[in-house]
Amino acid sequence: MTRHTLDPPRERRRKLALTNVGGPAERRGDPAAAAELARALDVEPGAGLDRWTHGFHTWAARMHPDTAQRLVRAFARPAAVVLDPFCGSGTVLVETLVAGGRPVGRDLHPLAVRLARLRAAIVPESRRRAVRQRARRIAGLALGRVRQGHRPPGPPPPGADLFDPRTLAELAWLRAAILDDRDPFVRESLSLVLSSLLVKLSCRRSDTDPRRIPVCRAPGSAVRLFVPKTDELCRRWKSLREALPERAFPADVRVDDARLLRSVPDASVDLVVTSPPYANVYDYADQHALRAAWLELDDAPFRAGEVGARRSFHDPRRGHDRWERDGRAWTAALARVLRPGARACILGGDGATPLGPVRFDECLARWTAAAGLQLAAIASQRRPIFDEETRRAYRAADRREHLALLARP
Predict the structure, then answer these.
(1) Is residue 323 part of a domain?
(2) Percent of the chain at pLDDT above 90?
(3) Of 393 and 301, which is predicted with more confidence?
(4) Pairing of β 102-107 and β 81-84
(5) Where are the alpha helices (DSSP H) in 278-378?
(6) 209, 242, 275: which is the final residue of a domain?
(7) According to the model, what pLDDT value does residue 22 have?
C-alpha cells in the first residue's frame, strides 16, 4: 500500500493556474490551421461543464470542453482513432465519443483512468437504475449505522483528520457499504461518487489549495450529498447516451506512461488531442492523495513519473533538465504511434522557475524537431500572472497559453 502524503508543502502557496480564457490569439504557421486553433481557444470560462458527463468530479486544469469539441470536429474524420495520452478526467474522450470517433485515453494516474472510463461509459437505463437504487440503499445503511453509534469497520484511511468526527463516520460507512456491493459496475460508480465528495466535505480549502479552513458539517451531510450526486451522474450518463451517433465506439482507457505509450501500437493513431501538465504549476499526486488513499490506489508510479510536477522543480536546474527529457520522450512517443499524415493538437502553457521563464512553444518546437514531426501552426493567448516568481520571469514578455498543430510526415 502506497504511503500517501496529505499535508501541504511548507512553502507559501501560490496561485499559478492559467484559469482565465478568451482574448485575441496570435497566429503563426499555416493560416487555415492557425485559424482553427484560434477558434478552439475562443471559449467562455465555465461553459460546457453542464454538457454530458464533463461536470462530474473536479479535475484541475482540464482542457475546456468546447476547445476539445472544436479540435476533434475540425481535425478528426468519422471513426478516426483519437488519442489523449494525458487524458486526465476524460474531456477529449467524451467529445470524441459524441463525434463518432474511436476514443483512446492513457494516463499514469490510476484515478484519472478510472474517472475517464466512467465519464466516457455508455450506460443503459437498467444499469443507471441499479446504480441509483444501490446508492439509496447504501446511504440508508450508512446513516442508520452512524445514528446507532456503530464504529466504522476497520481503521480510517489516511487523512481522517481532514473531517469532523460525524462526517468521517458517515463517509467511512458509505465506503464500507460500497466495497461490500457485489456488482463491480455499481461498486466502481459509487466509489467515484464518493471520491467526488471528499474534498467538498473536508476542511481543505479546495482541490488546488490544501490550506485548512474551520468547518462544522450538519449531521447527515455526507449522506445527503451522496444520493443527489449519484442521481446527477445518472442524468449525465443519460444525456451522453442520447447524444451518441448511431455507431458509437467504446472508449479504450488504460494506465500508461505518455513518455512510453507501451499499450499503443505503432502508427495506429489518426489524431492526438491533449494538454500535457504545465511546468512547475501543479502537483497532481498531492492534489489527489486524499482520494487515492480512500480508493486504495497505488499512485507510486505516478508520483515517480509525473511530468512537470512542482516538486520536481525544488532544484530548478534539475527540474528544468527533467522537463526537457520528459518532453522529448512524450513527443517521440507521439511520433511513433501517429500514422503517416496524422496530426496532433497540443495545448500547453508557459511556466516559470527561479531560473526564468519556461516558454512552452519554444520547448515544443525543440521536441517536435527532435521527434521528426512538423510544427504546422500555433495559436497563442495571453494569460494573467498571479505570483511574484512568475512576474519576475515574465518582466519582458507576456505569459501565454499555446495551442499547436503538429503533423507526422
Answers:
(1) yes
(2) 79
(3) 301
(4) parallel
(5) 284-287, 289-294, 300-305, 316-337, 360-371
(6) 242
(7) 63
User: Do 157 and 172 belong together in one domain?
Assistant: yes
CB 319 within 8 A of CB 312: yes
CATH, residue 86 = 3.40.50.150
Assess if residue 162 is contained within a domain. Answer: yes
Range of the domain at 55: 25-120+245-407
* pLDDT tens per residue across span 250-299: 999 999 999 999 999 999 999 999 999 999 988 999 999 999 999 999 99
Cβ atoms of 35 and 405 within 8 Å: the answer is: no
Residues 144 and 220 in one domain: yes
pLDDT of residue 201: 94
Return the number of other C-beta atoms located less than 10 Å from residue 390's C-beta. Answer: 22
Residue 20, in any domain of the structure: no
Contacts of 364-371 spanning 24+ positions with Cβ under 8 A:
364/327, 364/331, 364/402, 364/404, 366/324, 366/327, 366/328, 367/327, 367/328, 367/331, 367/332, 368/331, 368/406, 370/328, 370/331, 370/332, 371/328, 371/331, 371/332, 371/334, 371/335
- The model's pTM is 0.93
Q: Return the SS3 of 312.
A: helix
Contact present, 107 and 256 (Cβ < 8 Å): yes
Same domain? For 250 and 238 the reply is no
Same domain, 80 and 130: no
The Cα 362–Cα 358 span in angstroms is 8
Under DSSP, the state recorded for 161 is: G
